Amino acid sequence: MEHRRAIDQIALPDCSKPRNPGENCGLVMFFRDFLHLTIDSLTAHRLRTFLTTLGIAVGIAAVVLLTSIGEGLRQFMLSEFTQFGTNLVAINPGRATTAGTSMGIFGTERPLTIEDAEALKRLPYVRAVVPFVQGNAEVEAGNRHRRTTIFGAGTQLPEAFSMAVGLGHFLPDDNPVTPRAFAVLGSKMRHELFGKANPLGQRITISGSRYRVIGVMESKGTVLGFDLDDTVYIPAARALSLFNRDSLFEIDVLYDEQTPVDRVVQGINRTLEERHGREDFTITTQQQMLDVLGSILNVLTVSVAAIGGISLLVGAIGIVTIMTIAVNERSSEIGLLRALGARQSQVLGLFLGEAVAVAAIGGLSGLVLGMGTAWLLHLALPALPVHTPLSYVVMAEVIAVTIGLVAGVLPARRAAQLDPVEALRAE
Amino acid sequence: MIELSDIHRDFQVGDQKVHALDGVSLTIGAGEYLSIMGPSGSGKSTLLNLIGLLDRPTSGVYRLDGQDVTALSDRQQAEVRNQRIGFVFQAFHLVPRLTAAENVELPLILAGVPPVQRGQRVEQALAAMSLSDRSRHKPEQLSGGQRQRVAIARATVMQPTVLMADEPTGNLDHKSGQDVVRILEQLSSNGITLIVVTHDGEIGRRARRQLHMLDGRLESDSGTGNA
């Protein structure tokens, strides 16, 4: 095939032969030259380039800012919930998760009792069981009075909720049905009742019953608007009689992290069903709560990101517009490049490169703008949690470059497919 | 070296077919100095574009150095244009935002010539056009004659074998036009194949071989005038 070989000789560069260092194989432009030509044409229309870049920058800034706030909120909410640990299971009286009418209407549902809690302690993978009752009562110490939240709890509460005792001890491991009248104060409560004085061994009166103070909790602060420091902890059995109730509010079970949560739920189910005769209680795992909360917050973050995405779309349309105008204006230049030996792919690359450069620079400026605004917002409103994860930063820039590619591809294709003769004729 | 046999090029204008080239056969030898003349619409620019591989014939065979180049891919044709064909246009076609030197450098950049080798070649090409002192100027700072000389420097920097000039003096005053023609003829006498398209008889008649075109056909050919 003499003819075929001859064509190859003129048209196809011989890339098999070793070449001098730095020398290219055939019609391949150097990246530096490519960059130079791209930047040249961008700086030729400074205002236009600036405005197009700004369009993308505003879009990226909006996305970064909104997702930062969304992510900050998400992390804030999750940390509020997970500070008690994630291997917790809560049991509440009544059947709430099945469809249909609650059996509670007929009053046949059995109370959750201290004995139920004791039974659960015998499960092998259970590390702590906390029976839990809550109510308000008047607390007196000497001549000071304060109406506050009373928590009736089990002795294992500090372990289950990772709460620390600051002074003295938590409630002792008494007979759970007839515990001694001991009380543990929240740090704020201690301050209100005793000021700087040592409260240990002091007597307080809760709704007429006398208790001895044996400990003070470390400050835990406010959790979802609830002040955990402004409380008094007493044994659950005493709280039941104090509030005249026969059922606990809740039993919290802390289990071994290695045990699958399904096994724990199964074990609790079996134990309580044996005692109650049927499933008249509801088990909620911390993981379920976190999953629901997490998915709600994710939707929130994604939807604010989508709102930011609209401005990004507008920025992309700006790039398409400007690149289309540029291709029209520079027709004769495109024709010239083709006459000088530019391939279609090179013309495509040059125009695509301009679109990507505009989008990438816009993306970077948008990142700086968005993170700067997020930071200022955090300074101005410290209560508003703002968090910009690195992955979002990288993703935003990748999105910007992708937008440049997508927005640039139509005009660049048009440029590459221009008929060189027609293009040269255009003035 | 250039062989055209029975070349047709049709354009669709509305629902009418226009035969811009209607069976042109032509052989041009290496180093010839040739002018193509004719009224506008006679097909001379179409012929030039075809020879310069900017356009493809509707039918017919074009051989360059014995090879059928009409069948080449876009990439291959681009390389042939880059390596073997130089263009000089009536409207100069300099990129306004680039300096004279950068304009001359363009074909070298497209060919992927390393930067270290480019500077010297650009300098030589500009020096040959007596434009060394204008290399940092933008086109707008140059006169018409200087602009066309930059364009010729750009057309010759790859040392092509064929130089195609489409009305090279059309946008120039008489004196600058004369200079440009002299430069082109100088290149021709150095061995380049020079093809000038013009409707200016005075310039066309200077060529050793003169073609006249009318309605897409070769009207007359003064014959191969080998030097």
**Global structural class of chain A:** alpha+beta
Give a count of the beta strands of chain A, DSSP E runs of length 2 or more. 12
Give the name of the CATH superfamily of chain B. P-loop containing nucleotide triphosphate hydrolases
Order of helices and strands of chain B: EEEHEEHEHHHEHEHEE
Write the layout of secondary structure elements.
The complex is a heterodimer of chains A (427) and B (227).
Chain A (H helix, E strand, L loop, with lengths): L1 H10 L19 H14 L1 H37 L5 E6 L20 H7 L5 E16 L2 E10 L3 H4 L4 E4 L13 E4 L1 H8 L8 E4 L2 E9 L4 E2 L2 E2 L3 E5 H7 L7 E6 L5 H16 L4 E5 H44 L1 H9 L4 H37 L9 H28 L2 H6 L2
Parallel strand pairs in A: 3-10, 5-7
Antiparallel strand pairs in A: 1-11, 1-12, 2-3, 2-6, 2-11, 4-7, 5-10, 6-7, 8-9
Helix pairs in contact in A: 2-11, 3-9, 3-11, 3-12, 9-11, 9-12, 11-12
Chain B lengths: L1 E12 L2 E13 L4 E5 L6 H8 L7 E6 L2 E2 L5 H11 E4 L11 H12 L3 H14 L15 H13 L5 E5 L7 H16 L3 E5 L3 H4 L4 E6 L2 E5 L6
Parallel strand pairs in B: 3-8, 3-9, 6-7, 7-8
Antiparallel strand pairs in B: 1-2, 1-4, 4-5, 9-10
Summarize the structure.
The complex is a heterodimer of chains A (427) and B (227). Chain A is an alpha+beta fold and 427 residues long.
Provide key terms for this protein.
A: 2 domains; about 15% strand; B: about 230 residues; alpha/beta; four-stranded antiparallel β-sheet; 7 helices
Task: Provide a descriptive summary of the structure in words.
- The complex is a heterodimer of chains A (427) and B (227).
- Chain A has 427 residues and is an alpha+beta fold.
- Chain A folds into two domains: 29-78 and 293-425, no CATH class; 110-279, no CATH class.
- Chain A has helices at residues 2-11, 31-44, 46-82, 114-120, 157-160, 187-194, 236-242, 261-276, 286-329, 331-339, 344-380, 390-417, 420-425; strands at 88-93, 126-141, 144-153, 165-168, 182-185, 203-206, 209-217, 222-223, 226-227, 231-235, 250-255, 281-285.
- In chain A, helix 3 runs antiparallel to helix 9 and helix 3 (46-82) runs antiparallel to helix 12 (390-417).
- Chain A is elongated, with a radius of gyration of 35 Å.
- Chain B is of the alpha/beta class and 227 residues long.
- Chain B is built from seven helices and ten strands.
- In chain B, helix 3 (100-111) packs parallel to helix 5.
- The two termini of chain B are 15 Å apart.
- The chains are: A alpha+beta (427), B alpha/beta (227).
